[in-house]
Amino acid sequence: MGNYLTIGLWAGLLTLSGLPAMSRAEEPVVAGQAALLVEMPTGRVLYARHPDRQYAPASTIKLLTALLVWERTKLQGSVRVRTADTRVEPSHIPLRGGEVVSVNQLTHALLIGSDNDSAMALARYTAGSVDEFVALMNARARQLGCTGTVVKNPHGLPVRGQYTTASDMLKIFEAALAVPALRDICATSRYRLTTEIGAQTIKNHNKLLGTYAGMGPAKTGWTASSRHTYAASATRDGRELRLIILNSPNKWDDARALLDYGFGVSPSVPPPLVAAADHQPQPPSPATGRLPLANPPPVTPATANQALTVYKVKKGDTLSAICRRFDVSMKTVLRHNNLPDPHKINPGLVLYIPLQG
Description:
The chain is an alpha+beta fold. The protein folds into two domains: 29-275, 3-Layer(aba) Sandwich (Beta-lactamase); 308-354, Membrane-bound Lytic Murein Transglycosylase D, Chain A. It has helices at 10-16, 62-73, 103-112, 116-127, 130-143, 166-177, 180-186, 251-264, 319-326, 330-335, and strands at residues 34-40, 45-49, 78-80, 100-102, 190-195, 198-203, 215-223, 227-236, 239-248, 308-312, 350-354. A hairpin with a 4-residue loop joins strand 1 and strand 2. Helix 2 runs parallel beside helix 4, helix 3 (103-112) packs across helix 4 (116-127) and helix 4 packs across helix 5.
C-alpha cells in the first residue's frame, strides 16, 4: 500500500492482507468478541475477528472526544467547571463547580485517568453544549469513514444505542495518534494534576504500559455492559502494531496474546532504521509556532460526510503533486487541512485527503 494508509478500506484489507499460511493452532486464543490487529505503516491486517460487528465502546470513545477538543482548541484555554459537569458517575478525578481548569489539564485527565467529569466539561466548553458536541462527534466519525458508529455521550458510559466497531475504532485511533500531543498523552504513565481539591497524581489505566515490551500510546475502557475495550499501539525494533479489542472479558490477556502473535509474524518489509524516530514528538516550527501536522478544520456540513485518506508527506513531495496523485483539487485538500503555507509542506507532515467517488 506504499507509505500511506487508506482509511475506510479495512474490509478489503482483510482479504488482501497477504498473510502467510498458518495453522489454527498457531493463532492466538482471543476471548474478546471483536479484535483487529494491523501492521504499520502497510495497513496489513494480521488478525481480525468480527471487525464490523457493533459493540459498546466504553471509554475508548474518549479518543474521539480528545481529537475534537484538540482540533478546535489546540488544547489552549481554560474551562470554568459547572456543577452539572460533575454529576456524571463514576467520577475518577473529582472536579468542583466554579473552579477553573486548563483544557490541557482536563485532556490529560480525560485520556490518562479516563475522567468522566473532564469529558463533560471539555465537551461543553468546546461546542457550547454537550448535545452539540455529541453531534460533532458523530459528524467527525462519519468524516473518518466510520459507518458503524453512533455516539450518544462524550465519555462512553452505557446508554442505549451507543456503539462502534473494531474497524471504526481503529480509524478513530489512527486520527488521534496522528496528533503528536494526543499520542504523547496516551503514552504518559503518570500525570500530576492540580485542581481546587489539591494536587493528585493520575496513573494511566493501561496496565501494559511499562510492563509489556514496546507498549506505547493506548486508551482503555470498561463498563459492566460493554466489558473490556482497548485501543493500543506497540512498537518493537521500529515495527509498530495497532490493536483494537471490543467486548472482552479480559483485555490484558487478549492484548498480550494478539501482540505476541503479531510480532511473531514476519513483517511485510524490513523496518526502516529511522522508523522509531518517526513517532518522536516534534517541536513547533520556529517560524510559525505550529506543530508540523496538518489537521482538518472544524467539521462543517460540507465536510462531515466525506471519507478521508491519511497521507504522510515524503521528501520531494509538493501539494500539487499529491493532489494529482489522488485526483483531487488543491482547494478541496485545503478545506480539510489547516496549512499555514500550502507551498511549504515538510516531510513527515500528515495530510487528510478526501476520497473520490
